[in-house]
Design a protein that fits this description.
By secondary structure, this protein is mainly alpha-helical. The protein has one domain. 72% of the residues lie in helices and 8% in strands. A two-stranded antiparallel sheet has the order 1-2.
């Protein structure tokens, strides 16, 4: 058993190449995510109802809603208290978005990277929306439509601002 631990440490050290990376915590988050996916699958299998098919419209709604919710969690100023235990404010990164640096270590570092990365969050959020489509499709569509509407409004805000700049 010691040989395996030593080999894992050697591989992790080689991978890190002198950088501080919380690989053990990443692995733990991978296991948690995998457990959630397996749990959703088992619960879906045990249902008495057939698992619903997702339409192209459902996938588009989930995609747009996932994009907006991930950016809201990772970048929105109003959610900075959620990210604050893991990050340090660095400034503004775009309209209504913050740039933050992960400052926590260990588990906090991995969680900080997760909650500040819209790309990382998207996997978790999309899984939640798909799970919602299995167990509560109407409520899930309502929540997803809210975030999709915000994403559309964001796009229109940028288009309007761009049109104003062109006309100036």
């Amino acid at each position: 058993m010691t040989d395996v631990a030593e080999q894992l440490t050697e591989v992790a050290d080689r991978y890190r190449h002198g950088h501080e990376r919380p690989l053990g915590t990443y692995g733990l988050l991978d296991v948690v995510y995998g457990g959630l996916v397996v749990g959703l699958g088992v619960m879906a299998h045990r249902r008495r109802k057939k698992v619903p098919e997702l339409s192209v419209q459902d996938l588009a709604l989930i995609g747009v809603a996932t994009h907006r919710l991930a950016r809201t969690i990772a970048k929105d100023p109003i959610l900075s208290p959620v990210r604050m235990p893991f990050t340090s404010y660095q400034g503004v990164s775009g309209p209504s978005e913050l740039r933050e640096e992960v400052v926590a270590s260990g588990v906090g570092h991995a969680l900080g990277e997760l909650v500040t990365c819209p790309f990382c969050l998207a996997q978790w959020i999309a899984t939640g929306f798909v799970g919602g489509m299995i167990f509560a499709p109407r409520a899930t569509r309502l929540v997803a439509a809210t975030f999709a509407g915000v994403a559309l409004a964001d796009f229109l805000q940028f288009a309007y601002a761009g049109a104003q700049q062109l006309s100036s």
